[in-house]
Amino acid sequence: MTQVHARPDVAFDSPSDVIRDVQSARWAQKRWQDMGFAKRRKVLDAWRSDLARNADSIARTMSDEMGKPHSDAMFEIVMSLEHLAWAAANAEKVLGRRKVATSALTKNLRATVEYLPYGVVGVIGPWNYPVFTPMGSIAFALAAGNTVVFKPSEWTPRTGQAIIASFQRASGEFDVAHCVTGGGDVGEALCRSGVDKIGFTGSTATGRKILATCAENLTPVLCECGGKDALVVDADADVAAAADAAVWGAMSNAGQTCLAVERVYVHADVADEFERLVTAEAGRLRAAADGSTQIGAMTMPRQVDIVRSHVEDALASGGRALVGGLDSIDGQVVSPIVLTDVPEDSPAVVEETFGPTMTIRRVADMDEAVRLVEASEYGLGLTVFSRRNGRAIADRITSGNVAINGFVLHAAVPTLPLGGTKQSGFGRVHGPDGLREFAYSRSCTETLVQLPLPLTSFRRGPKVDQLISTVIEQVHGRAGKVRALLDGNGKP
Ligand code: NAD
């Protein structure tokens, strides 16, 4: 039995340390905000360079703490740097003050909108992508002018410390971004500390607890939670590409990916070919704890127990293993397991397994695939393989992210937001939405000319009332008719 990871031996912070760091971040916030977008961009670019120069060492810390192979850790870092670069370069364009149009009734006004930082943002992260996931909140919150207190997972505290140490080294700023270490109690203290927003990434169960705690102070929460993502293969798909994506999507990072492929629905016409390719590809992969293979050990013994129970239940309820089986589990080292004929109400199909496993089910047509995918209580990501109908199939399924004829590529495009629906959470990281997530909109009107017939005054008399009635009748009451005439059919 191979045991590889124990909780790292790092002194954890106490709830009073959290209060101290939040106060320090509060003290620094106005100065960081007043620095403006251009100067913050310089600081964030310097931070990016420092992270890049130290990528190898941060990747080693990540591998050491949570078990992913070094090359996967480097891939995670480059993805994070791409998003950091985008946030720094685009914050002003997305959040800066801009003029917006007025209406017929408000022509005498100049209207502007801008997005201002909340203040201090608490970021609570998971261990599975200990750089990529928290950076989606930290980098975007900082670019928007917030200061940050980050609590990494208790499984990856050194990686969290390394990210913040890099910021402090590159910027010379020691109050703008902090790292506090600890478990759920320290996270809870952060939620109660009076921060102005929490950016949370983790399980749906913890998301619920965080929402309950944050409800006490009406603290807003970004909730990036779990998933049970599906990959759908239509009859006209490039089956080899679909099989390759399914295996990587399910097995990379030892399956410990929120957007991992956990279940596959494949059209019966191509199912034999798909299963043959998946079996060949997944069957040649092995997991190891020493970095010698492309799959590392799983991080938490507790999660291995869930994987084992899902596989046991699937096999006991009529499922068959195409690749591996219970023998694939050796302590925390778990080699790929591919299951088929698993009942749709089994934990292996319904609950997040979070290990290197996948279930495959044959479907008669895409209606059946859509129905089965849509039955999930989660709605994070989705992958569809079809040469002609990928978009049409995807449009019938609820999910925050879709990749057609490729796996998870949306997470690599800096302009695209990332986030979930249903039990997978709400709010978005990355792209313009990710910047706005850490800012509140402030609207402003400036009166350019005082109207002779004021709208918002007790001097408003019958003439203004007449004007309002005319607008109601002529502008809004006739809207359907005018639209029909413009569309050329004359009928509303
Ligand atoms: P987790 O929910 O166990 O822990 C996440 C973080 O919450 C940790 O830092 C933990 O210490 C903290 N925490 C625990 N209890 C808390 C409490 N009561 N109050 C405040 N903080 C508390 O999740 P995990 O095991 O670290 O990560 C795996 C989960 O994260 C999976 O479900 C995965 O799908 C999800 N995830 C989602 C995304 C996404 O973008 N949607 C990305 C990565 C991971």
UniProtKB/TrEMBL annotation:
Residues the record marks as active site: E224, C258
Classification via InterPro entries: Ald_DH/histidinol_DH (IPR016161), Ald_DH_C (IPR016163), Ald_DH_N (IPR016162), Aldehyde_DH_dom (IPR015590), Aldehyde_DH_NAD(P) (IPR012394)
Key words of the record: Oxidoreductase
Any one biological process term the GO annotation gives: aldehyde metabolic process
Transmembrane segments: none
GO molecular function: oxidoreductase activity, acting on the aldehyde or oxo group of donors, NAD or NADP as acceptor
The keyword Signal belongs to this UniProt entry's keyword annotation: no
Keyword Oxidoreductase set for record: yes
Residue ranges of every copy of the Aldehyde dehydrogenase domain listed in the record: 14-442
UniProt similarity note: Belongs to the aldehyde dehydrogenase family.
Name the record gives this protein: Aldehyde dehydrogenase
Organism classification: Bacteria, Bacillati, Actinomycetota, Actinomycetes, Mycobacteriales
